[in-house]
């Protein structure tokens, strides 16, 4: 990847890709939930919701962020960046951030959230990354891998673009998440989850822990820490029902791995 002043280059690259009709080439049978995430109306609602909701702001996000190393002057990839809530924090912590997502409206939102302070990349994480070998010190990939078909390809690509001792932090549905129905852990399959407050159904891949663990280990990503987070006290004020559910159930899991 050619490094240029943050923001500029990628805005250009991103518009070029959008012009090339990227959206119409998406394979929606593999790239799950694309139609939701590429909907500008959904993106707006999602961005507003995760700012201070129980599920993200007061449960998953603080746990995942706690697994990152000090970020000053590091090159960090925010893979599946969404509307940029975390990219913004990474920039504030002094990192040079590349934000990747398969949704153009999510990247637009990330550019706006960070004041164009990141390099944006329109990238389906089901495809090889258009990024150089050993170009990142850390990768942050929150709540994304359950939309990606081939976890081995994704983690081998993450390992390729990480520098030695680089850190990959990811979070995903807990393998024992009670809201995922019809579990058949012996084979890869996906199920639909209702996001009632957004009036959408999301399709996600369900994976048993051993499949996630294998994809890490087979690609030289040593698992250092696994968190089963508890909601923060703020979640109780924001959304007592979500707080009660998250206090009792294993909903997301957060993992820190190091490239060996
Ligand atoms: C639940 S959101 C999480 C956003 C962000 N990581 C956060 O924690 O706030 C999932 C994000 O992953 C992106 N995504 C899902 N599947 C993807 C794929 N195959 N390639 C690239 N991005 C993907 C979606 O567009 C969305 O922005």
From TrEMBL:
Keyword Methyltransferase: yes
Presence of the UniProt keyword Transferase in the record: yes
Superkingdom of origin: Bacteria
InterPro entries (alphabetical): Methyltransf_11 (IPR013216), Methyltransf_Superfamily (IPR050508), SAM-dependent_MTases_sf (IPR029063)
Domain Methyltransferase type: start-end pairs: 77-170
CDD domains on file: AdoMet_MTases
Biological process (GO), any one: methylation
Keywords, alphabetical: Methyltransferase, Transferase
UniProt GO MF annotations: S-adenosylmethionine-dependent methyltransferase activity
Gene3D superfamilies attached to this UniProt entry: Vaccinia Virus protein VP39
Protein name (database record): SAM-dependent methyltransferase
Source organism (scientific name): Pedobacter yulinensis
Lineage, top ranks: Bacteria, Pseudomonadati, Bacteroidota, Sphingobacteriia, Sphingobacteriales
């Amino acid at each position: 990847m050619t490094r240029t002043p943050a923001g500029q280059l990628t805005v250009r690259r991103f518009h070029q890709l959008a012009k090339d009709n990227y959206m119409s080439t998406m394979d929606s049978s593999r790239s799950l939930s694309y139609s939701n995430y590429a909907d500008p109306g959904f993106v707006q609602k999602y961005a507003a919701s995760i700012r201070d909701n129980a599920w993200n702001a007061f449960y998953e996000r603080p746990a995942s962020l706690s697994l990152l190393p000090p970020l000053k002057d590091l090159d960090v990839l925010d893979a599946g960046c969404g509307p940029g809530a975390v990219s913004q924090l990474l920039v504030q912590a002094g990192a040079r951030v590349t934000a990747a997502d398969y949704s153009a409206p999510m990247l637009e939102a990330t550019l706006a959230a960070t004041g164009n302070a990141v390099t944006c990349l329109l990238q389906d994480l089901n495809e090889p990354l258009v990024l150089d070998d050993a170009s990142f010190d850390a990768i942050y990939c929150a709540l994304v891998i359950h939309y990606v078909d081939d976890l081995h390809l994704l983690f081998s690509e993450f390992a390729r673009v990480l520098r030695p001792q680089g850190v990959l932090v990811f979070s995903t549905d807990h393998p024992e998440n009670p809201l995922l129905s019809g579990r058949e852990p012996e084979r890869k399959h996906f199920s639909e989850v209702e996001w009632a407050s957004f009036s959408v159904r999301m399709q996600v891949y369900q994976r048993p822990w051993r499949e996630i663990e294998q994809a890490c280990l087979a690609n030289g990503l040593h698992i250092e820490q696994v968190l089963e987070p508890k909601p923060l006290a703020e979640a109780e004020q924001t959304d007592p029902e979500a707080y009660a559910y998250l206090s009792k159930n294993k909903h997301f899991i957060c993992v820190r791995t190091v490239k060996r």
